[in-house]
User: Fold this.
Amino acid sequence: MDLIKLSRISMKHLITLHVMLDTLSVTASAQRLCLSPSSVSKTLGQLRESLNDELFYRHGNTLIATPLARRLGPSVHQMINDMNQIMTQEGFDPAQYCGRFSLSMRESTFELLAAKLSAQVLALAPNIRLDISLKDTVGFDGLAKGELDFIILPHDLSQPSSAPTIHKDLVWEKLLSDEMVCLMNPAHPLVEDGKDTRSFSLDDYLSYGHIGITDGDLNTPFFEMQLAQLGRHRERAISVPDFGSAALMCHHSELLFTCSRRWAETAFQARGLRALELPFDYGEVAYSVVWHKPSMNDPAHRWLYQQIVQSSLEQ
Assistant:
């Protein structure tokens, strides 16, 4: 342990790095820390020299964090949280909290949870800032790097390997149980032929083209694997990034869309579509919340987690 080198790095340096990773702006960091931009630049310069790394570099008009800076992010965040708990003896007060949370969701989750969760959080903590992005924009890497606090998404529980294994410190927790249904245009031939949910067969399901959802982080859905074991497969005529786009395709075609029943019963885009029960075993599905395990040491994170759980219980 190099104590002399460590002694040159103070909480001021760590806090500046933490805020810079959040804002990627010297000016914005200076405003948040109530310092001058030159003071922030000076502190960054000292940290660059101590770590022998550029930490941030400019690409056009944007500052980009180096791999080392991104790797240090979660650890620095944890150290600041630990120090804050040492210095602050009173309990977490959401009414007085002025921090920021970053969440990422699949588009379908917006329909079910985002509006109610946001209203609930802002009613209890009016000074909190919520940044909610699409999961395709910031995914599981964002949790490990400290760029995100939580991800909420529909999740296939039937195959344990469907949870990404490259991040060992990610925690998954089920919020809502769900089931899969097949959406189709109300004028679809399967409906016009007088088919009901009991007579909807696997051959019916596989005789039409399907709309798939792209997700580079999660594995092939369990029901696709089940079909493969039967020597059958569905024909994906088109793949889209979210449930809403898929539902719109159903309105204007004979394509079928396999999705969450909860979403189908809630979403504006799915109104008017016919939902049939699937004629095969599709496994267990749910909506889950995911976080980076060390982040729960922060009382603010624990509070937001409680709000997420509470809002899901009201569904």
Q: What stands out?
A: The two ends are 52 Å apart (CA to CA). Confidence is low (pLDDT under 50) at residues 161-165. DSSP finds 13 helices and twelve strands in the chain. Residues 97 and 207 are 55 Å apart (CA to CA).
